[in-house]
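Lab notebook, bench 4. The sequencing result for the construct came back, and we need a structural model before the next group meeting so we can plan mutations. Quick request posted to the team channel:

Model the 3D structure of this chain.
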Amino acid sequence: MKHTATYLLLLGILCLSSGPVQKEKPDRSNPLKAQATKNIQSAYPEYRKIALQIWEYAEVGYKETQSSALLQQTLRDQGFAVEAGVADIPTAFVATYGSGKPVIGILAEFDALPGLSQQATAEKKPVAGKDAGHGCGHNLFGTASVAAGIELKKLIEARKLKGTIKVYGTPAEEGGSGKVYMVRAGLFREVDAVVHWHPGSENRAMMNNYLANSSAKFRFRGVSAHAAMAPERGRSALDAVEAMNTMVNMMREHIPQETRIHYVITSGGKAPNVVPDYAEVYYYVRHPKKDDVKEIFERVVKAAQGAALGTGTTMEYEVIGGTHDLLLNETLARALQRNLEQVGGVSYSAEESEFGKKIQSSLGFTVPALTAAATVGKFETREGGGSTDVGDVSYVVPTVGLEAATWVPGTPAHSWQAVACDGTEVGTKGMMVAAKTMTMTAIDLFTSPELLRQAQQEFKQDVGTYIYKPLLGDRKPALTYRD
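Done. Here's the predicted structure in token form:
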């Protein structure tokens, strides 16, 4: 990929009492974009309310009943035809408006993470009686995507754009691979391009090399017995889990260094004096290349089989998720970058700056200056360490995304600090940057056949002869994976 020089950094202005007012360079050459961003900004109070309501719901993967229903109803109220429960997933949906080509898709996520309950404060304070929290900002993700979809619908309705807009409600991104089932069901078959975004701590076109991922729960069954009076009669399922983990940890020396393997023991017995007859361990295997993930995952399975053999137990495993690496479409990313520069970033009010400094002081490491959220980062390709089911979408349709600064600069994803930011205007102000940028990029896609042609050409070249096949096989959606 070619790299460009650093782009001009654009500053926002302070948040006013009616919501974040962002200083934008007028796009005199495209009145549609200017009007669209103005309309989105005027609806900020409504979108802020929706995002914070989903933050309150904090529903984990495949259980996002209220969150999905709220987004669906918002779209229906605006005239979209909404098909719910698609791909055998109760909380998945596709909202459609318009007809004919081009067909542009926008992805919307809304699942929370377990174990990240947190109030919207700069001190660690879990919400009493609640386990989950939006540590990846999907309450903002889903709302901004719906906002963009609604504005594009209005332009189609007014006959200022021709084509079809589709908003995809995609559950369980966090380990549940919701989009994979939607891709497998053919829901992106007629789409010409897809736009998405993700909350973060800076503003930039998303040019990250995300990792392919396979995940599974390994379940061992043994024989229970009194651990002191008759240990010889027992066969410990927990011993099998520990044996498996030991073998996998030794395997790390003999696999490609880019590999990432993580696990948690989700069940390991109930009492020390009872030999556990059941134990479970949940594994993720990641690598930049999908084919290497398959091979390494098979070795993990063999370690599990060996552990069962050595401990006199039995083993079965359930594939929970599997995602492709993310194909980067530079043609679309450069178009998006231009729009992001047009929108610019946001600045914090004095109160928000104080909140930000407290968040940064809690992180325990050097972090960027708070002004980083007001800038637009340069266009560059980066190595990525995470995974996303957007990868599967990118293998069937040209896909482009951005990161918008919804967290105090330096805040890591999946942290209580991120949850706190996502429940404040620090988060919702950044959400508006994403909504405007996606809308402007989609306008380009609706109005520039040449941009679509070039994006399709790059996409076909990158995919080559590969025929898409989901890494999770033909299993049904893992609707209970968070149980």
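Residues 1-26 have pLDDT under 50 and may be disordered.
Will bring this to the meeting.
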